[in-house]
Design brief:
mainly alpha, globular, 3 helices
Length: 101
């Protein structure tokens, strides 16, 4: 993987993670700030991109063979929304309603 590809993947992850966190109200990560918030957004976006790829390419047969591709940003954003919602629900269950910092 070239450095340009790595940077593009990280940017895709961050953008999709930010979209997912913006669309899910009261997510478990909203109290975070600084680099933690950026890192969590990026990781959630990357996992969301994989989930979106799996849903659209694996289950529905729509799309191409690139998992982290800017052409699949809609599927990646949908996957990120799902990942943020499920992760928030799970963390709130485990943490007993407390916010993460």
């Amino acid at each position: 993987m070239h450095i340009g590809s790595l940077i593009a993947v990280l940017l895709l992850g961050f953008v999709c993670g930010a979209i997912g966190r913006a669309l899910v109200p009261n997510d478990a990560f909203e109290a975070m700030s600084g680099w933690k918030s950026w890192a969590v957004s990026t990781v959630l976006g990357l996992v969301g991109a994989l989930v979106g790829y799996w849903i659209f390419t694996g289950l529905l047969g729509i799309g191409d063979s690139d998992k982290f591709d800017w052409g699949g940003i809609i599927g990646a954003a949908i996957g990120a929304v799902l990942v943020v919602a499920v992760a928030s629900w799970g963390l709130k269950k485990v943490a007993g309603g407390r916010r993460l910092t």
